[in-house]
Amino acid sequence: MLVRAGTVADYDELKPVLIDYNDDRIAVYKFQDQFFAYLDICPHQLGPACEGLIVGNTEADILPDKTVKEFVSTEKYNIACPWHGAEFDLETGKWRSDERYRLKSYRVEIIGNEVMVDTL
């Protein structure tokens, strides 16, 4: 079933729009003109995963002199659960620490200028 989640104009980059559907809350994100939707429940301890911060992924480069340069990515982002800081990849929903766990995802369709979440 498709559920309306606003219009494309309602979305700012990397700022979730939370919608209520039945007894669930779903967060919809816009990132680089793509939309991602996740159930707002952390598989780690069932907290409100999508009500946390969006943070750049911490990455590192190994330089020719074998030193490590750490940096925060501006291309890969994580959803950080506010309860314990568990970070989930914004584009896949996978937990960065243990990819066996992931946020429940939903397909998003753009119909005209309407953002629709497929809840099936």
Description:
This protein has a single domain (2-118), classed as 3-layer Sandwich (Rieske Iron-sulfur Protein). The chain is 0% helix and 52% strand. The chain has 120 residues and is mostly beta strands. The protein has a six-stranded antiparallel β-sheet, with no helix packed on it. Strands 5-6-7 form a three-stranded antiparallel β-sheet, with no helix packed on it. The protein has strands at residues 2-7, 17-21, 24-31, 34-39, 53-62, 68-80, 87-89, 105-111, 114-118. The mean pLDDT is 94.
What's the structural blueprint in terms of helices and strands?
Elements lengths: L1 E6 L9 E5 L2 E8 L2 E6 L13 E10 L5 E13 L6 E3 L15 E7 L2 E5 L2
Short recap of the structure:
0% of the residues lie in helices and 52% in strands. The protein has a single domain (2-118), classed as Rieske Iron-sulfur Protein (3-layer Sandwich), CATH 2.102.10. The chain is an all-beta fold.
CATH 2nd-level architecture: 3-layer Sandwich
| C-alpha geometry | globular
- Report strand %: over 45%
Structural class of the helices, strands and pairings?
A: mainly beta
Mean pLDDT rating: 94
Query: Which radius of gyration do the C-alpha atoms yield?
Result: 16 Å
Query: Element order, helices and strands?
Result: EEEEEEEEE
Distance between the termini: 6 Å
List low-pLDDT spans: none
What's the number of domains?
1
Multimeric organization: single chain
The helix content is: under 10%
Number of strands: 9
CATH class call: Mainly Beta
Biggest sheet, in brief? 6 strands, antiparallel
Write out the CATH superfamily name.
Answer: Rieske [2Fe-2S] iron-sulphur domain
How are strands sequenced across the largest beta sheet? 1-9-8-4-3-2
CATH topology: Rieske Iron-sulfur Protein
Total helical elements = 0
